[in-house]
Amino acid sequence: MPVYRSADPVRTYYVYQSAWSFLAASSFTLSAVYYVRDAGLNPLQMVLVGTTLELACFLFEIPTGIVADLYSRRLSIVIGFVLIGAGFLLQGLVPAFLAILAAQVLWGVGFTFTSGADQAWITDEIGTERTGHVFVRAQQFELAAKIAGTVTAGTLGLISLPLPMVLSGAGMILLALMLAVFMREQNFHRTPAAERETFRQMAETFKHGLGVARKRPVVRTLVVISLISGLSSEAFDRLWSVKILTFTFPTVFGTSDPAFWFTVLALVGTLLSLGTSLTLNRLSPERLSAAHPNGILATLAALQVVGVLAFALLGNLWLALAAMWLQTVAGTLAYPVESAWLNRHVDSRSRATVISMVSQANAIGQVVGGPPLGAVGRSSLRAALLTSGVLLTPIPALYLSLRRAPRRAGDRATT
Questions:
Q1: Contact partners, residue 10, CB within 8 Å, separation at least 6
Q2: 70 in a structural domain
């Protein structure tokens, strides 16, 4: 193993997840304002931007997951960040609808190269026993980096709205180059070229991953939950900003500019998520890293339902924001707990592929659910947001349905 690839995998994971979070926040914080002000997108075009992104994720999630399982986790991650960076650059440099659509394809495909591959890589390198703590800790680093990225976006956005997007795109490509040099991969074994039958191997890997998803109750249920979440989330993710913009923002520091307030809102949401995560990790770390965390996940899912429904109904700016932040905090806390749980129920052979299947289920839900709810939103924003919340209501029960199965000596957990 070359010396330049001897970086500790946990530290590498923390660093690149933090860098990704910082750069993504820099690019996304003011993107909705950029779409309207600089690119002149109308509501329908904004929905199509989201649909294009999810279609790209849907079409490429499984193939890129198989690449990570068959060739290299590191290679998949490096390719992903290069494509994401190119998408950010294109979006920031060309404020036109078609260019923004093309950018969604680039960064959507890039994301699918990293989705599943990063978790599969760190799980292979450190073992499943340590992933729960590492995922929760990484989430905290990501939230701290997101705060820095949000502030950076707001500061640069006062100069030029596309500037933070362009700089984050260049940063993504630089991150990919650094990972190519320093990221080690010791516990993944590529199929030798002489034994490689690409299409047959891909088909077998996919079949194995599908079999895992069908036979193991935890994996199967998490796929269903991901699908339901997708049906709801596309409308909420695109329409919450539309509702917030219907309110009159107070003047602070001599400005009521939406760009300023969107930066503040993103910052507050991230600070709340980070503070809650740190508090729970200190007071009840065993719950966040539990081997069978269905109880805490059901509770967090119920809080998300309450947050979305309350946001849809409330007509006061600050109460609506409180509901939105409740939904954000609950979802942020649930993600690393669910990720660790999923990783404990798949083996290395198809880990990236199975994780990609879960992500693809979410993308399917967003593609199917987004446009109809967006159409409803054109006539009644409240009805679209309420429907989004109602769609989430089965998820707490699905988590609770996963009861710990009795284990016999020598058995592996498969529930």
A1: 122, 126, 130, 134
A2: yes
